[in-house]
Input
Amino acid sequence: MPTGKDKDTRPMISFASRAAVAAFLAISAGAVPAIATAQSGEPDPVVARVNDHEIHFSDVKVAKLGLPAEYREIPLAQIYPALIEQLVNQALITQAAEQENLDQDPQVQQRIAYLTGRVLQEAYLNRRVEAEVTDDALKARYEEFIKTVPANDEVRARHILLKTEQDAKDAIKEIQGGAEFAEVAKARSTGPSASSGGDLGYFTKDQMVPEFAEAAFAMSTGEVSKKPVQTSFGWHVILVVDRRPGAKPSFADSAEQLRTEMTREIVNRLLAELQGTATVERFNMDGSALPSSSE
Output
């Protein structure tokens, strides 16, 4: 029986592109929340003040993006007090660290430089990707993609499931003698579809066990299997009722995969362009020169 489930993958270009970039930049420790500054004309009020440090509403939105996935689904109003408390505590700790001049510590400065670089990388790639992965570009990519995807043909069949090969042969002989397939299925089949005359409805090849699918898809409309088909469920007699071309993947079902592919291509192209105009030197772990290609 069909087992596929419809998925709601409505286009969300900006969010999905950023997610793809974030995946490309996957940080092994200490994830950096996505940039979520206030848009032009959008109010960004001060929502807390810690000594002279102001915390804005946009900071709250950034903090929410940094939460685990299950908490990001909670409406902002419900977790707003907790986020404010978190931001206030963070500001207090930051100020205490600055008072002890930890911002001058070489290791801390190295870490800050690293995280600054990650934020800049993400912002740069997001801007470049979102400029190219537009609705029109994604739909054009889908139109090209769908041309290469074969239709997933469907077969509608009835079957009679029996315990032994001889029982199945007897059923075939009865049908060849003029008995209606559906009536034989109701009388003989041990499967759950017996009451409906063995009707399995429409199915694609990958929705049935291989032995059954291979036999059914090799038959013509109106044909009854000439010999029993064995599967792990028992012995089958098959009648192909109808065949039809299956639907190709929809835009909604394909958009996420295509967006990820386009993002990967754009990032790889940008890296190739940047490396082509830069002077890059690589060394061994001890700083010594790498052997030349001739060596």
